[in-house]
Design goal:
With 266 residues, this protein is mainly beta. The chain contains five helices and 20 strands. The protein starts with a strand and ends with a strand. Keywords: Metal-binding.
Length: 266
């Protein structure tokens, strides 16, 4: 099931309202896709409102507004190597603030304190229930679904400042979308990134050093995860620069494509 968060475009009595919904139809035929609105949040049994909209008549928003985003660095060996880093002995985790989140088609605003902003295509895990100290065998019980993410990074700031709060936490640095896929095996999915149609990254989740389940176990040892929290699982090799005017697209097999343009921060 694909769960989206959306607002209704002008011209409808519900214009401007924000809801969750179930997306149906073939991604290859977007004009035929439909969103069925849900009442309330999507974590329990779906409660349709009876209202449906053509996908082209709604604006897709970030599929979740997380309380926190826990990200994992250097979880693909080739990516660690391309930046001259060793694979860490334990998962390297950091936070991105909720204010970094944007949705499909929203703009990444190039921060004025950087001259080297880069893309990082990632599989994102959306947590479905409050949990802590999750055993490996019970990890599937706490996962709501998966979406695409771009861990946009000011690489020069990351290298200059050492700690990553500004480099990876600036406004608009965490695009998520286009929706959450709840029925997906994350073990071996293609993850790609294009910039202006040019392929930059092409990897598979099977190349992760630590699996999704292992990451959830590690993170939940330290902190409580809440419904809607997001875990970014690392990026494959091929990260590279973004410039004002670029369109960057992250695609993940079984989910879809998340596309954003890069603008100068106003």
């Amino acid at each position: 099931m694909r769960i989206a968060r959306f607002s209704v475009r002008e011209g409808s009595p519900a214009a401007g309202s924000v809801s969750f919904g179930v997306v149906e139809g073939e991604v290859s035929a977007p004009d035929s896709m439909v969103v069925h609105a849900l009442a309330g949040h999507p974590f329990g049994p779906p409660q349709p409102t009876g209202e449906s909209y053509r996908l082209q008549d709604v604006r897709l928003l970030a599929p979740m507004l997380p309380n926190k985003i826990v990200a994992v660095g250097r979880n693909y060996a080739a990516h660690a190597a391309e930046l001259g880093n060793e694979v860490p002995a334990v998962p390297l985790t950091f936070f991105k603030p909720s204010t970094a989140v944007i949705g499909p088609s929203e703009s990444i605003a190039y921060p004025p304190f950087s001259s080297d902003v880069q893309h990082e295509a990632e599989l994102a895990v959306v947590i479905g229930r409050m949990c802590r100290e999750v055993p490996l065998e019970r990890v599937p019980e706490v996962i709501f679904g998966y979406t695409c993410a771009n861990d946009v990074t000011a690489r020069d700031v990351q290298q200059r400042e050492g700690q990553w709060a500004r480099a990876k936490g600036f406004d608009t640095s965490c695009p998520l979308g286009p929706w959450i896929e709840t029925d997906l095996d994350p073990a071996d999915l293609a993850v790609t990134c294009t910039v202006n149609g040019e392929l930059r990254q092409a990897g598979r989740t099977s190349q992760m050093i630590r699996s999704v389940a292992e990451l959830i176990v590690h993170i939940s040892e330290a902190m409580t995860l809440l419904p809607g929290d997001v875990v970014l699982t690392g990026t494959p090799a091929g990260v590279g620069p973004l410039n004002v005017g670029d369109e960057v697209a992250v695609s993940i097999e079984g989910i879809g494509t998340l596309a954003n343009k890069v603008i100068k921060r106003g």
